[in-house]
């Protein structure tokens, strides 16, 4: 049930790991896409804008939780590469304890602050109530989101990128059925879409839990391995908190940008929402490449095989470049068709909406290779154990989006909003690429002539990163 990524051709291994992960991400995107398509086509552009207006705050909170879970999985991958299965199981147990605490805290805090956040973001009055009902339900589902992402991260750290896909496929079908039932039949509107998403995510998380318990014998723990450890929890937090903050810091810029777009009116919010959904779907291969590189670099760093890390980054970057070209070519012809997935042809201003969304899609895909490098290089750095550096890259992304949102969108309007994400990707790459070279160099200096580098936490402490 596990896979060793420390031997064999890097390109073949990365592809073999990334492709199943890609299918899983595509199924995961179906949650939001089906919701948005049904909302936009059946409930209208205002309902679509209501869901879209919550996108940045959704990314801020849920992204933090998912980043924490991804960080918790890195020590698991490193111990798997080092061959210490007992310590790997202890990390899994302590990650579970931390994830449970995180789930309770985040659910309570976001539930209490939800209305205030939407007010602070200047959410248009005509969509405020719908936005609140949608995002409040999503926040109440944080525990099941954490459950799935923690288990999926652990499973991928062991080299198995296929198992989570099967359960996501099942829950995606369930999500479509629940959307039809709750939105069309029960008349719950955008709240029904949120309920369908949470229930479906809960099914995939529960299925992963049952499967891990029955099939992954390598994770069967003794009483000693189940014992809480302050030292291991400290290492997990040292990896998880920077990765969670990376998403949150990046999302702060998105919140500033979303606030600026909200000020343009609900039609522009709907256009940006349609663009973001298409972009997220097209960017799934980059997310899969990032997930593959986190595990690949984690296992090879744990095994001390540093030469393979550089080869893997180069091979994966080549994959990203080829796919970016294909995406640009496809959207040159089909951007309008893709935008129509989320828009109602009967809308009064449909042609204006379609033109705005199509322009945004084309601008974003033109910079897709920059986004590819953000995912590939950042997750490689995290897999090597230098999670703190991800925060600095996130700060640059935040700053770029915030500057565009605060200064350029009010002055230049929608066109500036289209270039906000590309500016953030380029800014992050300017830091991440030299940082990756530095990380590999530091690993070499810390472990000269040794097959196993010192623990990542000590490397960071000694290097004052």
List the domain count as a whole number.
1
- Written as H for each helix and E for each strand, in order along the chain, the element string is HHHHHHHHHHHHHHHHHHH
Distance linking N and C termini:
36 Å
Class by alpha and beta content: mainly alpha
Describe the structure.
By secondary structure, the protein is mostly helical. The chain has one domain (about 10-465). Helices cover about 85% and strands about 0% of the residues. The chain contains 19 helices and no strands. Helix 2 (about 45-50) packs across helix 5 (about 130-140), helix 2 crosses helix 11 and helix 12 packs parallel to helix 15. It is globular, with a radius of gyration of 21 Å.
Short structural summary:
The protein has 465 residues and is an all-alpha fold. It has one domain (10-463).
What are the defining features of this structure?
465 residues, mainly alpha, 19 helices, globular
């Amino acid at each position: 049930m596990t896979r060793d990524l420390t031997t064999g051709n890097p390109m073949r291994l990365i592809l073999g790991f990334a492709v199943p992960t890609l299918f899983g991400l595509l199924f995961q995107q179906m949650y939001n896409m089906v919701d948005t398509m049904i909302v936009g086509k059946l409930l209208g552009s205002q309902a679509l804008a209501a869901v879209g207006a919550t996108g940045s705050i959704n990314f801020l909170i849920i992204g933090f939780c998912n980043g924490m879970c991804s960080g918790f999985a890195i020590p698991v991958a490193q111990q798997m590469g080092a061959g210490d299965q007992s310590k790997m199981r202890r990390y899994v147990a302590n990650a579970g304890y931390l994830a449970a605490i995180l789930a309770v805290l985040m659910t309570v805090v976001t539930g209490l602050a939800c209305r205030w956040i939407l007010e602070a973001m200047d959410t248009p009055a005509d969509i405020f109530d719908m936005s609140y009902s949608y995002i409040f339900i999503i926040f109440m589902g944080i525990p099941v989101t954490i459950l799935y992402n923690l288990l999926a991260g652990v499973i991928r750290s062991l080299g198995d990128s296929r198992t989570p896909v099967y359960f996501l496929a099942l829950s995606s079908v369930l999500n479509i059925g629940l959307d039809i039932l709750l939105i069309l039949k029960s008349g719950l509107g955008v709240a029904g879409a949120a309920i369908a998403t949470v229930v479906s995510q809960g099914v995939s998380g529960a299925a992963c839990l049952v499967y891990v318990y029955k099939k992954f014998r390598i994770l069967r723990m003794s009483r000693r391995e189940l014992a809480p450890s302050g030292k291991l929890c400290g290492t997990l937090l040292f990896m998880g908190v920077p990765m969670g903050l990376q998403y949150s810091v990046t999302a702060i810029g998105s919140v500033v940008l979303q606030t600026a777009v909200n000020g343009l009116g609900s039609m522009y919010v709907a256009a940006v929402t349609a663009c973001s959904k298409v972009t997220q779907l097209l960017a799934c291969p980059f997310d899969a490449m990032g997930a593959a590189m986190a595990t690949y670099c984690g296992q090879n760093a744990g095994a001390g095989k540093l030469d393979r890390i550089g080869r893997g980054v180069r091979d994966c970057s080549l994959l990203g470049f080829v796919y970016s070209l294909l995406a640009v070519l496809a959207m040159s012809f089909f951007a309008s068709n893709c935008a129509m997935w989320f828009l109602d042809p009967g809308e009064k201003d449909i042609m204006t909406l379609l033109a705005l969304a199509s322009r945004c899609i084309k601008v974003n895909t033109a910079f897709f290779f920059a986004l590819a490098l953000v995912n590939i290089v950042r997750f490689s750095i995290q897999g090597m154990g230098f999670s703190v550096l991800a925060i600095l890259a996130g700060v640059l992304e935040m700053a770029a989006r915030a500057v565009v949102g605060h200064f350029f969108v009010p002055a230049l309007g929608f066109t500036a909003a289209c270039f906000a994400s590309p500016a953030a990707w380029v800014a992050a790459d300017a830091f991440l690429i030299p940082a990756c070279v530095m990380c590999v160099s530091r690993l070499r200096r810390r472990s000269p002539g040794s097959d196993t580098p010192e623990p990542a936490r000590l490397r960071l402490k000694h290097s004052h990163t």
